[in-house]
Amino acid sequence: MTLLxxxxxxxGHVQAGAATVLVRLTDSRSLVTPSKxxxxxxxxxxxxxxTTARSFRIGGNRMATIAPGRSATLAVxxxxxxxxEYVSTGRNVARLAGVLNVFVPCKSPMATTVNVRMDHDxxxxxxxxxxxxxxxxxxxxxxxxxxxxxxxxxxDYSNASGTTPDLEPGQTARLTIHFxxxxxxxxxxxxxxxxxxxxxxxxxxxxxxTIV
Length: 212
Fold this sequence. Notes:
It contains 1 helix and 19 strands. By secondary structure, the protein is mostly beta strands. The chain folds into 2 domains: 2-105, Cupredoxins -  blue copper proteins (Immunoglobulin-like); 110-211, Immunoglobulin-like (Sandwich). Strands 4, 6, 7, 9, 10, 13, 15, 16, 18 and 19 form a 10-stranded mixed sheet that branches. Strands 1-8-5-2-3 form a 5-stranded mixed sheet. Strands 12-11-14-17 form a 4-stranded mixed sheet, with no helix packed on it.
């Protein structure tokens, strides 16, 4: 027997193009697959494999009771990137909690070139733009300082990071990264980590860009 709970917009609107998340609950553990979904409609298919009734809640959306051995479906609309805590409780069993990560996919990727000047001894790292369209971004990095340096970029998801080789003063290198999500990416010197002045670093040796 399957229970159906619809929360938020009308069922047809919520379910159109919805991502599906499988939730398996036991008396002591929860397993959520996948752990990352795009913004928009999401269908949670929840199976209670434990020995007592359980609830399931994510944000303000809640399935009050799922009997042991039964399943339930919860449809929600997730807006905005970031993490969402989910919680399941029941009588005389452990409280289960975890995090579902929500991302904004890049639907209209573009190719962009960003010029980077590295000058550790004086101005630090400067970029020609810090608001960058999602898609393929090529960083053209020139070391205009007096010390050997490299340039690193990283975001909070896989395959969105990279580094140049060590650049002698006056050298230029290109670093291409494919940003598949709208998010924040961070950059820094590979040789002089920002915020660690005891190692020669400063705040000018790193920063962030917004991927839109």
